[in-house]
Amino acid sequence: MSKEANSDLPPPIPFEEAMRQLETIVSQLERGEVSLEESIGLYERGEALKKRCETLLREAEMRIEKIQFGPDGKPSGTTPLDA
Question: From CA 2, how far away is CA 14, in angstroms rounded?
Answer without folding.
Answer: 14
